[in-house]
Amino acid sequence: MKSFTNRSFLKLLDLTGDEIEFLVDLSLKMDGYRNYKTPCATKNMALIFEKTSTRTRCSFEVACADLAINTVYLDPSTSQLGKKESVKDTARVLGRMFDAICYRGYGQERVQALADYSGLPVFNALTNESHPTQIIADFAVVKKTFGSLKGVTLVYFGDARYNMGNSLMVGCAKVGMNFVACCPKEYNPDGDLIKTCRKIANETGASITFCENPAEAAKLADVIYTDVWVSMGEPDEVWEKRINDLLPYQVNMNVINNSKVKIVLHCLPSFHNLETEIGLNVYKKYGLKELEITDEVFEMFKDSIFEEAKFRLLSIKAIILATLSDEDFDPFKA
Ligand code: CP
Ligand code: NVA
Prior knowledge:
Elements lengths: L16 H14 L12 E7 L5 H12 L2 E6 L12 H8 L5 E5 L3 H11 L3 E3 L7 H15 L6 E5 L5 H13 L2 E5 L8 H14 L3 E4 L2 H7 L2 E4 L12 H8 L6 H5 L5 E4 L10 H10 L8 H6 L1 H23 L10
Parallel strand pairs: 1-2, 1-3, 3-4, 5-6, 5-8, 6-7, 8-9
Bound molecules: phosphoric acid mono(formamide)ester and norvaline.
The site of phosphoric acid mono(formamide)ester has 8 residues, from helix 2.
């Protein structure tokens, strides 16, 4: 656990490929294993969620309960954060009360400021730019399926400029997986990030490619990944253009039939039917019953998609354990 003790987990660019794979392996080792030791009896973690969450919040809460870490949940409606108190001042307060902070919210600079001014390890539970804990869970499912990460090709369909596209591209480059973004050019990740990832990929044997043709991209895929077309915090006005631009990149049976794909992944939540308020509103306005992935494909690949959700808990537990335990701590030693 040495290299992680007391480190923040803000973005995957801060980790080496070996460190990412160590966390993936620790998550896999925890699958079905309940008897590991907890790092200490009295730690406290602040969970700040400026955006909504099901999986990530539950994973942090359950992981902390399993590891005997107390949690305090804070959101903008019930705390001073945002309206009355800056991130910097909040960090300086929490730094004097807690042992760690988990943050979900807007710009990456907010989670960075929490780490800079609290002096505590801070876990990024999703920002606009990155979602690093999600990638550890995703890669655990990939490794469980293929036996290794290196050489596996992941094709991402949809808006690759946002947190999931960015983090998957960085993660793939770091561990030697091939990343393909299949979307219109304007939805590719930021040019500087692509340059950085291509440099990393040169060293790890990974490849980073961009393809505007879904049938061509599908042919390359061992893993197909997609995410919502409009992310949390984006205004409703973007829906129309997003639908027009990204509908050709929907993960549907044409994509699957063009591929030799073994698993489909989706970080969730997903708009694959009319059973959500947003899904229903989009249907009423634009006449589409399913968005980034069709219901048929979603149900066909439900095992890998919900396995991924299960690994959110295991991977977040692994990340917390690695960070908050002492250097010589071994959770599996009786
Ligand atoms: N995948 C994910 O982060 O889910 P939540 O938004 O429910 O936390
Ligand atoms: N891109 C999505 C990811 C959700 C886990 C969002 O930010 O809403």
